[in-house]
Amino acid sequence: MDVTATHMETLLKRFQSFKPPTLKRTENSVDYENWLEYIEQLFESLNYVDDHLIRLVVHQLHDVAKIWWITTKKELEHRGTTITWSVFKTAFYQRFFPVSYRKDKGAKFASLKQGQLNIEEYVAKFSSLLKFAPHIAANDEAMVDQFINGLNLDVFTLVNSGRPNTFDDAPNRENGAEAGLLRQRGAPFIPQPPYQPSSAPQNPPWLPQPP
């Protein structure tokens, strides 16, 4: 018995038990974005390594997406490219997100401000736009800079004084800063749970709920 094949069958069965959405023909870039975001959140939650991701995701590609990947995979292999999840995503963005869509998302990321958003909403918006602007936040230090610079001025001052070292730490610093400001103003503070970048994904309404 092929131990590797058996292991992949186990991983696939577990993956599909969450009823991940399939990708079919659509003219809406938002649908492609939502699909990829959910798949990535599920992979992260299941703690699957890079070597498994491509072999699992191909089962969710149907119609035009399946034909695209068969052709793209052959082209990448012909060039001698090692097909990683990052390579898959880059090819996916180029095929299914028009240049104008990517530019618009990148511009929104570059100008993102906290405004009326609470910590959870700001983190969600920041993370959603981040993948369209790798040139703006090319490393963890750049992500922290971009994140902090978008904060409201009063929160920015408190967070920046004890500057976080990583992006994962930044939301929790902001949460604490907001609590301090509200206490100063005598306003009630409803604590947010600590930011968990690896928490289980929550399905949008258009996706089935996992068992």
Give an overview of the whole structure.
By secondary structure, the chain is mainly alpha-helical. It has two domains: about 5-95, no CATH class; about 100-185. The chain is about 60% helix and about 0% strand. The chain contains ten helices and no strands. It has helices spanning about 5-15, 30-45, 50-55, 65-80, 85-95, 100-110, 120-130, 140-150, 155-160, 170-185. Helix 9 (about 155-160) crosses helix 10. The longest helix is centred in the N-terminal third of the chain and has 18 residues, at about 30-45. It is globular, with a radius of gyration of 20 Å. About 20% of the residues are buried. Mean pLDDT is about 80; it is low at about 180-185 and about 185-210.
Quick summary:
This protein has 211 residues and is mainly alpha-helical.
Q: What portion of the residues fall into strands of 2 or more residues?
A: under 5%
Q: Give the CA-CA distance, first to last residue.
A: 30 Å
The number of domains? 2
Total helices: the number is 10
Poorly predicted residue ranges: 180-184, 186-211
Level of helix content? 55-70%
Shape from CA axes?
globular
Whole-angstrom Rg: 20 Å
* Beta strand count: 0
The SSE string, one letter per element, is HHHHHHHHHH
Global mean pLDDT: 78
Classify the secondary structure makeup into a structural class: mainly alpha
Query: Main β-sheet, in a few words?
Result: none
